């Protein structure tokens, strides 16, 4: 049975049950079984009734929590019914004890929550379809249905078969904010729903949506003392508007208790002043001013959303806005006016807003501000993230009455106020338009403190913790403390403190992850593809001292020059068709094909194992040796300059993996200036010039390998007629638009290890350390001598040596 069919019978009973809750007090008969006294609803079991219950719950105790369960036929779902949301206002709270079904009536929720039930002894609640069907008659089944419906995304997958899934209930602690930790029994407990299975379709959807795997129900803080607990980690009511005092508490706690982890900006250096030319909005005087020395300010991250230029700062209105009262509040869109009010309520004075603090029609001013963006966001007291809005006119949800879409549902079960925790931060952001935009990526990555405004609640994240409105988790962090929110934030940039010397190359894995995430996002202006990540590359450059800490030498077209041999190996992402990126009509040179910035569509980095199974992963490829040196590039002025690419050879990279070394890169002095590049067809800026070897190989699509990106990309075997026709010598990932079979030109880049199964080992011999060459398939750009990237793959070294490879100079545009 599908979810849609199960729900069709539920909707009719909801209206009656909600009215019933307002008019009556549902009574449950006291029941005594196996020495356990089950108290009436609304009353805590007496202390004497619990004296014989051990902390370690055995099977007899577990069975005493329940008498029977009711089986329900049917198994399908679809939920037009909405018992979890309202457009605005306070939490949805039934007034009195909710009625319970026969299964839940037999449970003593006080006792379960107080003493806990281990997962292996979980109490059966019956079929999942039965729980969904009983949502209209039973308060606890309703809570269980809400958390399953939301977490499993059932509204988006109405035809998934749930008929075989059984559910059970257990209770355990959800965290600890104390050190030393008390006994587990004394910690805050939650109810957890445990399904017997999870459909694959649901699991994949949950991963994509960043939903948590736990199905939990929490007790509100007002009932914690009645259950012999402190308020820590219990639920908190979320009102129609935010509690400014709570936000102040978060900021104060972070500033006082977290020290340098949240205060220092390790890539900034010793100068704590912002560069000259950075402006601020003075929310007291309502004027645009130059940032004073040691300025304490708040930054704003939001979506412009196609809004007009009426509110921008321009060369024409800059002078007027520079005087006290010169900025008219009524001319500003809702996100900005709400942010001004928030900053005032928090007792701060300065706010940085890009549209107001950068002269929007001055390209020189824009370039200067973009060049220091990592300092602007990294040095702010905190950044307001207007994640709940789609345009600059959207309000900050919860700052003013009626602007919040409330989703907290509270039911009273046997006198306990229970609620389903609101989604974690990462899950919430995944569903926002804000999370799809390119510029917001570096803004969140570089901010040391973050205040997220979402439709449901606000979240605060810093280098040490994550807090939100619906969970009481504010406390000085202890070394061994933990809580469920902490590891579900968005994270920061690589290291919170200055990286240790042994980790100086660890930025590469952070870079690989960042590129994978960033290229999934969208930009209104194609020309912003590099600008919108420049702050992040600047931070890596300065923090890790790449190329002497000079961003102009360390990165080109978004690519790390220090590790160019590695970052050239990006691959297209699953189910995304790639197109060459245009220059947006700005008159600048197009981005080169060797950079991911030259293509529209998401990319990722992965090791050589991806040539057996195409998969998404954010590892930087593991190279044993670079086989190209030196590298040159045509700069913006048309001059050929040598790049400062870090050297990598096998003896220094992985000395323990030195195997038989057969292929040697071209030797001798290489001077590209002797090539006469300024003749009839001079290469465009961004063209890489290097010396390597090239060879032609046949390719043929591999039809026997399943791939989750087969819509636009597929595996192609690289074939050679030596020593026998159609010998498999390697593998490459290529667009399906490449005809098969075909012949392509390949160039050698670097050396690596590789998996078994990508070449004919019975013909060419067994693998050995470093036996694969990373190669790039290239094709000519029109009638020029410039080559462009087609794809990247691996070839067995022995096959390359047997080919007709020859030394060549590559001009890669």
TrEMBL record:
Pfam families: HET (PF06985). Keywords: Membrane, Transmembrane, Transmembrane helix. The chain crosses the membrane at residues 6-28. Residues 297-443 form the Heterokaryon incompatibility domain. InterPro entries: HET (IPR010730). The keyword Aminoacyl-tRNA synthetase does not apply. This is Heterokaryon incompatibility domain-containing protein.
């Amino acid at each position: 049975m599908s979810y849609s069919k199960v729900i069709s019978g539920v909707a009719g009973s909801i209206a009656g049950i909600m009215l019933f809750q307002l008019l009556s007090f549902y009574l449950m008969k006291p029941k005594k079984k196996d020495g356990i006294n089950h108290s009436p609803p609304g009353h805590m079991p007496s202390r004497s009734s619990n004296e014989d219950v051990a902390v370690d719950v055995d099977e007899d105790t577990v069975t005493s929590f329940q008498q029977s369960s009711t089986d329900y036929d049917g198994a399908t779902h679809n939920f037009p019914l909405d018992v979890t949301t309202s457009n605005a206002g306070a939490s949805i709270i039934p007034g009195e004890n909710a009625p319970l079904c026969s299964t839940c009536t037999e449970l003593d929720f006080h006792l379960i929550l107080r003493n806990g039930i281990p997962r292996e002894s979980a109490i059966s609640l019956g079929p999942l379809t039965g729980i969904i069907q009983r949502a209209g008659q039973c308060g606890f089944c309703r809570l269980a249905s809400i958390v399953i419906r939301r977490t499993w995304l059932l509204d988006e997958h109405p035809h998934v078969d749930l008929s075989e899934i059984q559910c059970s209930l257990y209770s355990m602690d959800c965290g600890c904010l104390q050190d030393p930790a008390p006994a587990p029994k004394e910690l805050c407990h939650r109810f957890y729903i445990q399904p017997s299975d999870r459909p694959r379709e649901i699991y994949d959807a949950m991963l994509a949506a960043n939903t948590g795997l736990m199905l939990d129900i929490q007790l509100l803080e007002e009932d914690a003392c009645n259950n012999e607990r402190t308020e820590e980690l219990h639920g908190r009511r979320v009102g129609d508007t935010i509690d400014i005092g709570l936000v102040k508490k978060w900021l104060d706690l972070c500033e006082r208790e977290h020290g340098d982890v949240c205060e220092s900006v390790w890539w900034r250096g010793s100068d704590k002043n912002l560069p000259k030319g950075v402006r601020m909005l003075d929310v007291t005087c309502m004027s645009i001013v130059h940032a004073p020395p040691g300025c304490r300010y708040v930054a704003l991250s939001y979506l412009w959303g196609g809004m007009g230029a009426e509110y921008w700062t321009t060369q024409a209105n800059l002078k007027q806005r520079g005087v006290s009262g010169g900025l008219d509040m009524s001319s500003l869109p809702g996100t900005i006016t709400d942010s001004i009010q928030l900053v005032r309520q928090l007792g701060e004075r300065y706010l940085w807003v890009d549209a107001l603090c950068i002269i929007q029609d001055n390209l020189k001013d824009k370039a200067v501000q973009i060049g220091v963006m990592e300092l602007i966001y990294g040095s702010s007291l905190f950044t307001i993230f207007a994640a709940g809005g789609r345009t600059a006119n959207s309000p900050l949800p919860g700052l003013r009455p009626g602007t919040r879409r409330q989703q907290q549902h509270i039911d009273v079960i046997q006198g306990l106020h229970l609620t389903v925790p609101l989604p974690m931060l990462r899950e919430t952001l995944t569903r926002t338009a804000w999370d799809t935009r390119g510029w917001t990526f570096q803004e969140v990555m570089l901010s040391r403190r973050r205040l997220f405004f979402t439709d449901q609640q606000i979240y605060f994240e810093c280098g040490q913790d994550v807090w939100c409105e619906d969970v009481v988790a504010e406390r000085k962090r202890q070394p061994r403390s933990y809580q469920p929110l902490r590891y579900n934030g968005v994270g920061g940039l690589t290291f919170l403190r200055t990286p240790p010397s042994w980790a100086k190359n660890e930025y590469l894995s952070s870079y690989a992850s960042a590129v994978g995430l960033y290229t999934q996002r969208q930009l209104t202006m194609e020309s912003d593809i590099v600008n919108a990540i420049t702050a992040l590359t600047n931070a890596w450059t300065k923090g890790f001292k790449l190329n002497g800490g000079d961003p102009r030498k360390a990165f080109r077209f978004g690519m790390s020059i220090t590790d160019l041999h590695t970052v050239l190996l990006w691959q297209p992402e699953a189910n995304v068709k790639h197109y060459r990126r245009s220059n947006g009509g700005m008159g600048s040179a197009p981005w080169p094909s060797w950079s991911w910035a030259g293509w529209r569509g998401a990319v990722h980095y992965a090791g050589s194992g991806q040539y057996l199974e195409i998969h998404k992963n954010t590892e930087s490829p593991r190279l044993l040796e670079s086989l190209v040196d030196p590298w040159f590039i045509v700069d913006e002025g048309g001059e050929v300059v040598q790049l400062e690419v870090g050297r990598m050879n096998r003896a220094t990279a992985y000395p323990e993996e030195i195997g038989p070394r057969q292929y040697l890169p071209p030797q001798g002095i290489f001077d590209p200036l002797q090539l006469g590049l300024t003749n009839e067809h001079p290469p465009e800026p961004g063209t890489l010039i290097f010396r390597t070897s090239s060879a032609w190989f046949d390719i043929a699509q591999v039809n026997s390998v399943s791939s989750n990106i087969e819509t636009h990309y597929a595996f192609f075997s690289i074939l050679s007629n030596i020593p026998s026709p159609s010998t498999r010598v390697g593998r490459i990932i290529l667009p399906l638009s490449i005809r098969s079979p075909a012949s392509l030109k390949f160039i050698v880049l670097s050396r690596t290890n590789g998996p078994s199964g990508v070449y004919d080992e019975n013909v060419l011999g067994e693998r050995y350390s470093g036996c694969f060459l990373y190669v790039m398939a290239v094709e000519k750009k029109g009638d020029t001598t410039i080559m462009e990237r087609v794809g990247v793959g691996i070839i067995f070294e022995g096959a390359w040596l047997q080919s007709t490879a020859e030394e060549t100079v590559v001009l890669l545009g």
